[in-house]
Each structure stands twice: as structure tokens, then as C-alpha cells.
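Progress narrative, work stream C.
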Amino acid sequence: MIVDFHHHYTPRALVKNDPGDELILTYDEMGAPSYTMHKLLLNFDSTIEMMDASNIDAAVLSSAAGMSSDLERSKICNDTAKQAEKDYPGRFYGFAHANPLGGAEHMKELARCADELGFPGVTITSEQDGLYLDAPEFNPFWAECERRGLFVFVHPALALNESAQFNGFDLARSVGREFSLIMATIRLINSGIFDRHPSLIVQMSHLSGGIASMISRIRAYQDKVFWGTKGNPRHGMLPEKDFDYYIANNMMFDTGGFCGAIEAVKIALIELPASSLCFGTDWPQEIRTSDVTSNFVKEIGKLGADGEKILSGNVQNLFKNRSIGS
């Protein structure tokens, strides 16, 4: 069974004006391109047509409108995803949308998503509100996710905490978000979050910003004696185990974010174990036609045993608290 773990939608209730055949691009406060709205985000029937054409059996739904957002928007996204599950049995599964910094009301919504809606995971952004994922303010969220057996899908933040250097050439979207994912991965591991929550599983989107191309350098900087940072309360911090232990045991990396380019997956496999990769398309943002998704599935399949793990074999690594197909 092929499951797409990086698959987007937008509830119609949150769209004031139907985009029709237009692309509506919004910009952040710094004037950087932020989000593209279009009709494919609103149409589950078109999504099913793409999935059928691409031999994708199921998709886990996340919405940018509800990621680290206010309570009302989160609930609308959650209820829309649950309705999609009911309307298309076995084809869609919902991610919980609950702001990790939202306090008791958002933790109550997270509980509803887990206990009543049966969602297997929750989606958040790689940074928010001037904070990064290792900030103490996130600690109750990590504890609750581990306690409930929910995996956490980390999507790149649409609005970066620091965006001045990305003020041209669409840099915030093309590379800024990828830097954010790489830094989020390092922060999660080196801050000891997985040591405090050893059964916590985090799915990093976009192959964690293409971290495989940087991981040799990241590993080298784990030698705090060599670099002179040992004993520094921030820069000298290390987890209890080797960096790659957490890559293999606490993290999954989805193949979305590279517009269906198989080369990105091949590069990832040089440094990341195939058992830590899961399939994702980023439909319908970075891919918007079924011929691209279909070719992406075929190319991953050509990777042999590694490709089979990515497409199907690793599904249960994330669906631990819910049987796929139920």
C-alpha cells in the first residue's frame, strides 16, 4: 500500500473567494512570497483522480491554514479532514491541527483529534512566534504527543522568524524553508528532546530540507572538543547517543518538497537509511499534475528494495496507533 504522507488541502470554509482558475499568491510581512491558493486545494475529487492515476492508495491530509494557527481554524481543518475520511473511506487520513504553543484549549483539541477523530499524527511548523522547536515552551506539547502515541509532522514555516536575508528572488520559499527544516532537525536532536521522549517520532518534511547534503558537516560539528565549544551551555550541548541514532530511531523524512525530482531521493539515500524515509508528494503545491506524481512513484519503485520501503514498507512506522485501511 502506497501512502502519501505529505498531502495538502484547504477547507472551503476558510476561503473567502473561490480562486476559480486563478493562482492567488499572498506575501508575508516582509514582502516575500508566502502561499499560493488555487482550486486543487479545495477539490478532493481531483485529488482522488490523481491518486488513482498514480497508484497512490491513501494520503494523510494537512492544511497550511491550520498549522500552528488559532483554535477556530484548527478545528475547521480537523473537521474537514475527518469528513474527507468519511466521504472517501480508506483513501484519506487526517493530521491533527493544534497549535503547540496554544495552551490548554489546543491540547484539548489535540486530545479530541486523537481520541474522537482517530488521527495518527499532528502537524506543526518548523518554527513559530520567534521560537524554535527546542524552546522550553514546546515541552508540554512533546510530552503530550509521546503520551498519546502521536507522531509529529514538521512542515516548513510559511513565515520564518528571521526573513531579512530572503528578501528577493523567492528565496524564503526556495531555500529559506529548507534551512529552517535542517536547523529544526539539529535542534530536536542536540537539545535532548528525544532523550526525554524516547518513543517520540517526528516526520520531517522535504527530506529535512535536503539534510543529506549537509549531514557530514553536521556530524563533524558534533565534536565539541575539536571545535572548542565543549562546556558552552548552548553550543556545547550534545544528546546522549550518536547523532545518527536519532535519525534511525526517532525520525522519518518524507520525499515531498522537491517537485517530484528523483535525484533528491537518491541523494538522501546516500546518507539516510531507507527505513527512515517515507513517501510524500507535496500535492497540490509543488506538484499539480498526475503525470508528475505517477512518474515520481515509478522512479522511486525503480530503487528496488529501498524504493519499496519508501513507498510502502515504512508506512507502519508512522501508523503505530492506527491500522492503515481502517
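Work stream C, second folded protein:
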Amino acid sequence: MSISAAQVKQLRDMTGAGMMDCKTALAETNGDIEAAVDWLRKKGIAKADKKAGRTAAEGLIGVASDATGAVVVEVNSETDFVARNDAFQDIVRNVAQVSLSTDGSVEAVGAATYPGSGKSVVDTIKDAVGTIGENMSLRRSTKLSVSSGAVATYVHNAVVDGLGKMGVLVAIETSGNADAARAFARQVAMHVAATNPLALTADEIDPAVVAREKDIFADQARQSGKPENIIEKMVEGRLRKFYEEVVLLKQAFVLNPDLTVEQALKAAEKDIGAEAKLSGFVRFALGEGIEKEESDFAAEVAAAAKG
């Protein structure tokens, strides 16, 4: 099959591998992007799939919090110009605020009454489309709560207070000082923004993801020509390192790399005045997971010329 330049570019953007390596990988995997990423990783040519960084949507992430909980919402727009509009920012701010009174699901938030309007959040956004002149939508929302402790919020590169391109929530459960707990949880939220962990603990990682990593590590190890029992130990070692890279509690704490997040939490208990437990985190980056549609301009011109 023929491999398009657009496919090669997509794979390069995802892996950082060279153009010829990407072309070979796609040819070897019949143009399957995901399989091509694995092919490159098994050959030691590329690191993990970076596709979460590809974004298409504009808009804003909004956060809001109260004494025992916090929410993060994503409201999309078509252009960044609208995201800088005061009216749009007010909508996202109000949607985040009203979300606190719901369970945080996008259905519940969409159905909630928008402040001062008597209309639902979804209907208010629809009305704003006509006023602002651009399509907008509530894409997703999540809420974290604690029975005792705090949920901290952090907005990376905030455009105004509580609104930006990335929002993080971190829940910490403790019977100790809530303000001290919130201060530490906010530091962890900044860490999460920087490192984008897959899960809080190793047990929470999707088994399919672990199986995929083990398969790649085993293929890499076999290239060394070592016997299977040694390969098994090599895979176990690589898997431990993988957990240190992607599991929040096992990661080196960005604010003090000499400690893991788990160790930093233990140290923070002194200020908090009681045992503390990180019970959850959420990280929303604007537009993540939305595939960007890129047209092949040369192909369009050629098609138009033929027509």
C-alpha cells in the first residue's frame, strides 16, 4: 500500500523518529499508526506515543472549588480569539461554579441551571453561539470530593483566575489541618501538570497498557540475545522503571526530585498534623484526544485540477 506524506508527518509528530524510519515503520505495519509506534519503540527508535499532546479544539479549561470538593470543566470554541472574549470567559467561569452543585458528570452539569438565567447550561451555551457567532460546546467535566481534607486546584498558564489551557485537581484526605493539606495538594497539582501521570497507583493502570509495555520491553530485550530467564528479569526491571515514570506516587517529585511524591506526602504530614492520603487527581489539557484534521493541500489542488 502507498504511505502518504501526511501519515509520515503524523508518526514523526507522535514519536520524534526520522522520516525514513517512520516511512519504513508504516510500510511494515500496513499504514497502522498505532502499530507503527510500537514497531519503532521495539527497534529502540522512538519513545512512548505522544498523541495526547495533539490538539484541535480551542476554548478554555475552568476550575472551581469549595471546602470539600472541586470541579474542572472544558468548554470548547472554534478559535482562540473567542476564548479570549470576556463573554466566553464568563460562561466557562459560571459553568465551573454551577458544577460544584452537581455530581460533576457532563450530563448533570449540562442539565444544571445556569446562574441567573433559569435555563440549563446546555441551552445557555446554545444561546451564546448566536450571540458570540461561533460554535461552542461543553465537552467534559469531573468532580473530586473528600469527606475530610481538601481538594486543591491548579490552572497552568491561567489567562484569568481559574481559567486557562490546562486544569488539575488533586484530592487529599486527612483529619489534620485542611489549609496545610490543600497547600501540599496544590504543589502535587503543579507536579501533575508537568508530568502527566497515567494513574495514582500501579494497580490503577489499564492492564492492556501494562501488557503492551511488557511486550515492547520483551522484544527489546530479546535483541540482546540473552536467554529467556534473563530477559524476564530485564522486563521486570524495565517495568519498575515504567511505573516510576507514569505512576504519580512513584514519580520523582518535581519540587524536590530527591523524594518521590509518596515520600514528599509523608514529609508533609508534619505540617498537616496527621496522616494524609492522596485519593485522586484529574488533569484536563485543552483539546487532548481530539484528532486534528489536516488536509493534504497538494492532493486537493491535484484533485481540483483533474475535475
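Confidence is low (pLDDT under 50) at residues 50-56, 292-297. No further action is required on this item.
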